[in-house]
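Researcher: I'd like a structural prediction for the single chain below. Treat it as a standalone chain; there are no partners to consider.
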Amino acid sequence: LKMYDTAILCARKLNPTWSDDRSEELSWGEIGNRPYMRSLLGRALCLKNTGKREEAIRQAKKLLRLNPGDNQGVRKMLCSCLS
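Model: Treating it as a single chain, here is the predicted structure.
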């Protein structure tokens, strides 16, 4: 979890538009967005696997706001958190 948090922090320093409160979509088609989005998903999965279900749900919902096309399969992970 600490490694994902560090990766996300570093990505946000490189691209300040990727702030925690970002409301605009991040296109999966833009290759430069993918490492950041993969880190967000990795963090969500780590939260889920360590029993931090509510925080994992928040992270998954954030990912779906950023990428409503769900190129990463976040909906499936979110459904497993909600069941």
